Amino acid sequence: MLIANDENQNRIPAWQAERGNEFFCPECQNEVILKAGKIKSAHFAHKPDATDCPYRLGETELHLRIKREIYEALVNHPNCRRCELERRLNGVRPDVSLVIGSTLVAIEIQRSDISIDTIIQRTTRYTQLGIHIIWILPELRLDEEGVCNTKSWHKFLHRLQLGRLYVWEIRAIIRPVHLGLYYIWRESYEDYESGNTYGGYAKQAVSKKYAIVPQGNEQ
């Protein structure tokens, strides 16, 4: 995690924290360790014996970097207010949250597999709190034809966000993309035993591949 409390209950970003001070998890109040090496971005980590906190599990370097970059791009943006990292909001703790106009917005960065039930639970809670939620994917690997393999939760988020996935590209650049159906051409062939001809038509890919079409370029 990127935020911890100091001994005076001030919220301190990991990259501004100083070694030698004590820091505490805002959720469980247990002491956390500042880790600021040359390989991984500065962050706080629970001690090995901390087993009672839902946020004790670590995050990947990519997740930490994207979260910080999005926060730093928005915290001083003229159209944004109250931008915070890992703010506790009555049962949820989005990676980044802020107010745009009069709308409270939460940003969740989701790379690892997640169940559709969990997405529904979180989205329902955000809706109950009057918070608009945006799910961001750190990556969506495309092949040479601009096609990717999608999982069930990718497609669910696509429907949930009105035909869009929001994909991180570099720094704080987020690209909205649309998933279009991908078809495979089945070549025709003749069955010599029956004399029937099969194939000769396009079929939706069984492997659930979808073509990626940038928003604004749709036909």
List the helices and strands and how they pair.
Layout: E1 3-5, E2 11-13, E3 23-24, E4 31-35, E5 43-46, H1 61-74, E6 80-85, E7 96-100, E8 103-109, H2 116-128, E9 131-137, E10 147-149, H3 152-160, E11 165-170, E12 173-181, E13 183-186, E14 189-190, E15 197-198, E16 201-204, E17 209-214
Parallel strand pairs: 8-9, 9-11
Antiparallel strand pairs: 1-2, 3-4, 4-5, 6-7, 7-8, 10-17, 11-12, 12-17, 13-16, 14-15
Characterise this structure.
- Strands 6-7-8-9-11-12-17-10 form an 8-stranded mixed beta sheet, sandwiched between helices. The chain has a 3-stranded antiparallel beta sheet with strand order 3-4-5, with no helix packed on it. A two-stranded antiparallel sheet has the order 1-2.
- The protein is an alpha+beta fold.
- The model has no long low-confidence stretch (mean pLDDT 87).
- It is elongated, with a radius of gyration of 22 Å.
- The chain is 16% helix and 36% strand.
- It has helices at residues 61-74, 116-128, 152-160; strands at 3-5, 11-13, 23-24, 31-35, 43-46, 80-85, 96-100, 103-109, 131-137, 147-149, 165-170, 173-181, 183-186, 189-190, 197-198, 201-204, 209-214.
- The longest helix has 14 residues, at 61-74.
Offer a few descriptive terms.
3-stranded antiparallel sheet; elongated; 8-stranded mixed sheet; alpha+beta; 3 helices; 16% helix; 219 residues; 17 strands
